[in-house]
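Minutes, project check-in
Item: structure for the 283-residue chain
Input as provided by the requester:
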Amino acid sequence: MSKNLRNSGRSVRSAAVLAVCILAMARSGASAPLKTIEPGTLQVCLYPGFKPFAWLEHGIWKGWDVDYLEDFAKENGLKFRGVEVKEFNGIWRTPGEGTCDIAATGISDTLDRRDKSPGGAWSKTYYTVVRAYLIRSGDTLKDIHDLRGKTVIVTKGSTADTDLQNRALQAGISGEVTIHYTDDEAAAAEEVKRGEAFAYAGGYGSVKALAPKGSGLKVTWAHCNMVRADGAFKEYSEPFSFVVRSASTNLPSALDNYIVGHKYAGTPNPPSVKCEPRPDVPK
């Protein structure tokens, strides 16, 4: 047998072995290695002020987003490391800035935030939330007009902030609602309980977690998110997404695949509140 024929035979056998390996990987669901800032570790930027999505307890990260991304990291052979971000406003920029691989903690997916997060890839929607308010059990809040002359606490730059401002502007009472900002939901709830503020505005899941039975607080006025679209105010549903560092090879697609196949543990929204999806935000 000639040398060329022997080499040709080896090439055919090598190609066949490679094809079998690729087929086996496809059948087993194996994926390409994920590139992260620190090899072997998934660093996630988290804001500790949005319980139950994320919070710090004796130096340990807990919450719905934390559990979800810890499982994602484990499934991909990565260690999980939370990176604390002191202010929520702008957390969506951190992956593109190289601070972490993923930004989390109840980040509403909006075109404005997408435009202001270069180097970040927005994931598929993993949870959808509605807006709600926390007030004292004996108080009443049915709509924006009940906030005239009242003080409302929100997290600066959050959707609760823009929803409140948009509704007040639409109702013509923007100058009659006093807005105070906070970086601590639990502290805001205590202010409401003491009567120092009338209400705290947040996502339904977060607000519900702040009003356990016997707390003297209640959740009220669950509603869709008010946004400006096409030159008008409109109510839409509010999708939550993770922001992934685009330079982290294979990470954005791996997280999207995980979201498709894994249920999120967040509190279901009230069935009475039906919100139309935003047509201008990718799913």
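Outcome recorded: The radius of gyration is 23 Å.
No further action items on this chain.
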